[in-house]
Amino acid sequence: MVRAIVVAVEPRFLPEYSDMLRDEYVFAYHITIENRGDQTVTLKKRYWRITDALGRVEEVKGEGVVGETPTLAPNDEFDYTSSARLHTPWGEMVGHYEFETITGERFTVAIPQFSLKADVTLQ
């Protein structure tokens, strides 16, 4: 039994949804989850720790991702895009997913830490 879940993250700043005058910065992050193992697994839960530039922490926990609990057979992948809002122009996110095998065994997979950085230039 080989468990090899690979998580890749691509964050980006969304200036069109941000209001810098009110210190509201919106970021999208695109996640790709690949099952390179030899077992079918289902993503059951997610956990995020979002930290802004002032060290304020928000924790997000819940079932699945974007309203889904995707099942990935070996060599399958699932991707989605979600967003986060900060009150500083930069911060970071880190977390983990909880998966379940078809035999009911649960395990966690780390989501690599990534930075959220607003590209703000004063005109």
Could you explain the architecture of this structure?
This protein is 0% helix and 61% strand. The chain is an all-beta fold and 123 residues long. The chain has one domain: Immunoglobulin-like (Sandwich), CATH 2.60.40. Strands 3, 4, 5, 7 and 8 form a five-stranded antiparallel beta sheet that branches. It has a three-stranded antiparallel beta sheet with strand order 1-2-6, with no helix packed on it. The protein is elongated, with a radius of gyration of 16 Å. The N and C termini lie far apart (56 Å).
| Mean pLDDT over all positions | 95
Q: Which range does the strand content fall in?
A: over 45%
Task: Let me know the largest β-sheet.
Answer: 5 strands, antiparallel
The CATH superfamily turns out to be ApaG domain
CATH architecture: Sandwich
Gross morphology is: elongated
CATH top level assignment: Mainly Beta
Unreliable parts: none
Distance between the termini: 56 Å
Number of strands: 8
Q: How many individual domains?
A: 1
The structure class reads: mainly beta
CATH topology: Immunoglobulin-like
Number of helices: 0
As a whole number of angstroms, the C-alpha radius of gyration is 16 Å
- Which series of helices and strands comes N to C? EEEEEEEE
The percentage helix is: under 10%
Protein name: Co2+/Mg2+ efflux protein ApaG
Domain ApaG: 1-123
Organism: Vitreoscilla massiliensis
InterPro entries: ApaG_domain, ApaG_sf
